[in-house]
Amino acid sequence: MVIRRVRLVLLVVTLTVLQTTVFTHLRVFGAIPDLCLVATVAVAFEEGPQTGAIFGFASGLFVDLFLATPLGLSALANAGTGYAVGVFQSGFVRESRTMPLVLGFIGGLIGGTIFVIVGGIAGEAGFFSLTSVRVILVAALYDAVVALAVFPFVHWANHDPDRGYSRR
Amino acid sequence: MAVYRRDARRRPVLLIVLFLSLVLVTVDSRGNGLIDSVRRVARDALQPVQSVVDSAFTPLRNAVDGIGGYGAVKDENALLKKRVAELQGRLLRQRAVGSQVGELGKLLDLPTIQDATGVAARVISGAPGNFERTVVINKGTSKGIEVGQPVVAGNGLVGKITQASGTEATVTLVDSPGFGVGVRLENTNERGIAEGRTGEREMRLNFLTKLLPACEKNSSPDTCISQGEVVFTSAVANAAFPPDIPVAKVTGIEKKTGDLESTVSLRPLVNLNDITYVKVLRWPEPTVG
After folding, report:
1. Cβ burial, residue B202 (10 Å; 0-12/13-18/19+)
2. CATH topology of domain B115-289
3. How much is the pTM?
4. CB A135 to CB B53 under 8 A?
5. Crossing angle of helices A49-64 and A35-47, rounded to 10°
């Protein structure tokens, strides 16, 4: 259990470092992927809504420390996404190689939408615009692509030797 | 077949994290010293790792940029050579005028950009999120950088410092939505506010002190706005920016039927998508926020 948590913490730190360094130079049509959001989707896919929401909150909070937007905004978006994906996944049991692609895209859409709506209400300038819709869509597609790489890492980090892999 | 299982125990967890998030968003939106301190500590702690990772990926990034941008760089090089020749000529013409302006400035004791000392810094990364127009620089409070200080590059205004830790600082770019700069027009000296626009790299000139039409063929440039005219930061008391920093140039003047005034579009003089080095000014009267 402890080893699993340590690995998940290291995963969040690694993804945040990659997002704040490498991916800032790899923009596609002005958008970059949200690696911790994708990791949240993967955790929610394996563990269900409760763990998905908690992991999303923690990972989002950590990413928020490096963003110019208010602290808690990514935490809220990731927690909501983790919960939503977890609920969806606990109801539908599917095994497919394209599942990371689909979940990455859906998670990107949910997370981006929550982020923009709450950010706009909190007074962030320019959030309520057509540009935001475009950015959410492009970022969700990007999230889907990086999900193919992130999901296996999350699967490894989430593996608990004492209980094996779980999926609810 | 879909099987939906309701689990009432999940909801309190979701409600707690949503509530905590909303509290944090609300508190941080209003500004909070404790949150700022936590941010600074986290950034300083991760900065060495970020630096190593960034350095490790630099050759790969350069290779990708080089392959993708070879043609553009070649064209840009030719354009720049032509531009350098033009500017050298203009510089010589302006020297005479500049010396006179300097004399007058001293006589009137006006603060100028020359009065502001600065810290040179390198841009180490762009915005880590999708909904902000920022860059991160490799100098922070340990080098005297503070929130609110103006940031310039060789040919104009870049933005201002909005977050600073010991080792790095975040610069909000001048074309960010919600960012406003007090400016004056080059020819008429009329003042207005240059504001960033959502999703656009162009800015808009608003709140001009006088309604001015677009220049036509025989118009005197002192009575109208012309394409290509430069706007500079204006000199007002307690301004966030030193006066006379070039900000942007006029790229469009449009007056639709029924509009009271023209819509003036501006393009920042600095290529904000490709900045390597900047200077953070220790402006004598910085305005925080």
Report:
1. middle
2. Thrombin, subunit H (2.40.10)
3. 0.81
4. no
5. 160
